[in-house]
Amino acid sequence: MVSTKPVTTDKTIIKLENLSKSFQVDQGEALILDDINLAIEENEFLVLFGAGQCGKTTLLKMLAGLESITDGQIVIEDKPLVGMDPRVGMVYQTTALFPWLTVMGNVEFGPKARGVSKKERREKAQYYIDLVGLNSFEKHFPVMLSGGMQQRVGIARAYCNDPEIILMDEPFGHLDAQTRYMMEEEVEKIWEKEKRTVIFVTNNIEEALYLADRIVILTECPAKIKKEYKIDLPRPRNLVSPDFLELREEISALVELREGAE
Amino acid sequence: MTNTLKISKNTRETWAYGFFGILVFLFMWQLACLYTNFGKIFPTPVYSLRAFLEAFIKPIGKYTLLGHIAISLKRVLIGYALSSVSGILIGLAMGHSKMIHAIIYPIFSIIRPIPGIAWIPLAILWIGIGEPTIYFIIFMGGFSQMVMNTMDGAQHVSKELIGVAKVLGARENQIFRKIVLPYCVPYIFTGLQTSLSTSWMAVLAAEMITAREGAGWLILAGMQTGRIENNVIGMISIGGVGLILASLLRDSERRLCRWSVRSR
Amino acid sequence: MKEKTKYIFISIASLLTFILIWQLVSTTGIISARKLPDPVKLFETFLYKLTNKNPDGNVLGVHIWMSLKEALIGFFFGIVIGVPLGISMAWFDKFDKFFRPLFDLIKPIPPVGWVPIMITFFGIGIMSKVSVIFIAAFIPAVINSYSGIKQTKDVHKWVARTFGASNGQVLFTVAIPSAAPMIFTGARVALNGSWVSLVAAELIASTKGLGYMIQTARLVGRIDVVFVGVLVIGLFGAAMMEGLSFLERKFVKGGRRK
User: Is A66 within 8 Å of B161 when comparing Cβ atoms?
Assistant: First the structure.
């Protein structure tokens, strides 16, 4: 049921090849990402997991085109990624909604910027607003919404732009535990319905195990791939099933061990 | 039930105390006029009120009170509109582009600390006495505040939101209109508010020095002709109009910036 | 770092170009020197005014001294009376209810509006100017210290109370320190208002001071002296604001934005 071997894929949508990133600092160069090689399948739910602060968000930003690549390359459907790409969408750690736009305005932002006709983009935005359960909140401004609701808007906004790959950067890190569980269920439901490739960053092991098809564990600075787990537990997952708890134990031990070693 | 009772008791108390405070003030004013030398130069409250009401129908100088106020309003609105529009444009440009900031800011910072009112003598020498001079003075009164506030907004536009917009597919020319501009709106309103009160002050000073009509002239003429009641009337009207202008502006901010935490 | 140097260089170049164009425009007569004296001439006038009493009866230093004295006295009293009044209004409910309506009546009247009445009372000496400036400083001082105290976080007050602090102790150890940044903001607005009102008051009626100097120079058509006066007004306004910011950095620790 559980394999710890690297996953081989046939319908690869995105490939990271020898990807490295370093930042210019006063003393010279700081290596953040070290030689990442990863192939991600179409419609896969991939979780990047690591306890530290280092690398995960930077990796997502590189995928989104917000950070430059120091070495190696990212290939999406056989084409190397250069800068921003409409095939990639992102949900942010802080909700990063436009405070001056209503829920509708936020969700339809992408299609509007690309010049989609009003009727078409409204229909589409409405579909995703309904999907994340915000029907009747279309005219609300973000300040009027709770944290969980704001993050729902963020998810709808990312999906509404029709990307093939959705990046989620610890989207529920700022939410309370109860809301977090609800949002995780929500994300899983949407993912099953909409079938896009999701790359999800978290440092919460339960969240990782609940959502992932595959978990990629990264080391602390510089981030390297430490180990991969393919998770075949049936969905929706039971958080207290023996298999779940066993995996949880194993991964926790792995992360703690490494932290102890460093 | 008990709650509403409490509130109404509190309101009643507020009114009572406030009323009492004003009454004490008026009473002392009246007494001072009747029994001290103060009364030789200063009208009593009763007399001032009568003069105030009369001023609506009886002209002082060339116009009635309302006429003077209308003239001042017209002047202030023209100067204010000019300074707001140009201040916003230059502020946006300086906040958005580091290059424009580097070019304009040093020159701007020579002009910035000079009060609008200090331009009066120069304006008269340049343009002569007349309406354009008054517009110019009001313009200089509000301009630098508009620039500073707008620039502050444009310089602090959230980098994250710009990134978000780019990831969603917004192009460079859309970023300015869709992110930078709306981000600056609350800052612009702050500028509009401070600049409005300076403009209102500038028009008064300009009218005291170079005009023969308007609320500022009314006050000064009151002093020069020894009719202090006109002075009092002018001050009351100026205060009233200033109050109305400021609350109109606040109201429109609340309407336009429902999304901003500050205006809620 | 490199980019910063580049922009500083551009700023200096821009300023020099500006002064150079100004110089050329007025020496070549594109704009008559009677409308726009050139920078060199202005510098000469500045030096001349340091020692010469023409055309307004006093040397530049006397005018500056007079203006500073009036502005700072008025400002001082505005703060010394305004801040405690604002604090008391915010802390004692009855005080608030009594003074609030009166204050609300005076608040919207621009300080310049008081000039004629103060001249009527006190003549055109220093007293009328000081009282106008007093009002200009007093109003923002009250408003800002009032809202500063009102914004004291309840939780901070509760903490102090649970440690057994009396009402007075809470005011002096919690409310006033937490209102300090707002009070300083008020002082900055007050200082700015003082300087503006001073110029206005001196323009309208006075016998000394920078405002009087530029008004007299205007009447006799000495545009160079007007220019020098306006620039000196700006310079001293900026210098006083800097001084206040310095004090603020020294006294307000923590909780200040930027």
Answer: no
Q: How many domains does chain B have?
A: 2
The DSSP letter of residue A138 is T
Q: How far apart are CA A169 and CA A88, in angstroms?
A: 13
Asked if ipTM goes beyond 0.90, one says: no
B169 touches chain A (CB under 8 A): yes
User: C34 to chain B, minimum CA–CA distance in Å?
Assistant: 9
CATH of span A1-8+43-69+82-87+164-262: 3.40.50.300
| Alpha-carbon gap: A135 to the closest alpha carbon of chain B (Å) | 19
Q: State whether B118 and C8 contact (CB < 8 Å).
A: no
> Is B188 within a domain?
yes
Give the domain range for residue B221: 44-256
What is the Cα–Cα distance from C60 to C51, expressed in whole angstroms? Answer: 7
Instruction: Kindly state whether residues B61 and B145 are assigned to the same domain.
Output: yes
Considering the domain boundaries, does residue B240 fall inside one?
A: yes
Please report, in angstroms and rounded to a whole number, the separation of the first and last CA atoms in chain C. Answer: 21
**Contact present, A56 and A48 (Cβ < 8 Å):** yes
A113 touches chain B (CB under 8 A): yes
Residue pLDDT tens, chain C, 258 long: 578 889 999 999 999 999 999 999 988 888 888 888 999 999 999 999 999 888 888 999 999 999 999 999 999 999 999 999 999 999 988 888 888 888 888 888 999 999 988 888 888 889 999 999 999 999 999 999 999 998 888 888 888 878 878 888 888 888 888 888 899 999 999 999 999 999 999 998 888 999 999 999 999 989 999 999 999 999 999 999 999 988 888 877 654 443
**Token representation of residue B139:** 């313009």
CATH code (residue B146): 1.10.3720.10
Crossing angle of helices B120-127 and C223-251, rounded to 10°: 150
CA separation, residue C108 to residues B52, B190, B238, B244, C84 (Å): 18, 17, 8, 9, 21
Who among A84, A89, A96 is closest to B160 (CB)? A96
Closest CA to B217 of A150, C204, C163, C52: C204
